[in-house]
Amino acid sequence: MDHRDRYQNRIELLQGTLDMLILQTLRWGPQHGYGISNAIRSGSGDVLQVETGSLYPALHRLERRGWVQSEWGMSENKQRAKYYKLTPSGERQLTAEHDRWNLLSTAIAALMNRGESEEEA
Description:
The protein has a single domain (3-120), classed as Arc Repressor Mutant, subunit A. 68% of the residues lie in helices and 13% in strands. It has helices at 3-27, 33-43, 52-64, 88-120; strands at residues 31-32, 68-74, 80-86. It has a three-stranded antiparallel beta sheet with strand order 1-3-2.
């Protein structure tokens, strides 16, 4: 695997994680892009910040895959905004991604904790 392949894999992991986070925020109800970004930021204790340059391509990708639908509406401050909502297919994808995330995070934690316990021994 050359440097370019490693970089591409990293980008795909980040996109997959962002997709999962967007789907999770939409599980709570339809939302416009700014609201999705705020939900991710506030829900993560201000640790995760999604830039518009990443958010909107992800939303368009999710819409092409049929995991979200969009329609125009009025925001809280009377501005025209595109609202996104989770589809039944998106709900199934979120469940699969959540299961995959749990497996991955458990595996990483096990590896990291094993390294710490070996250092203590």
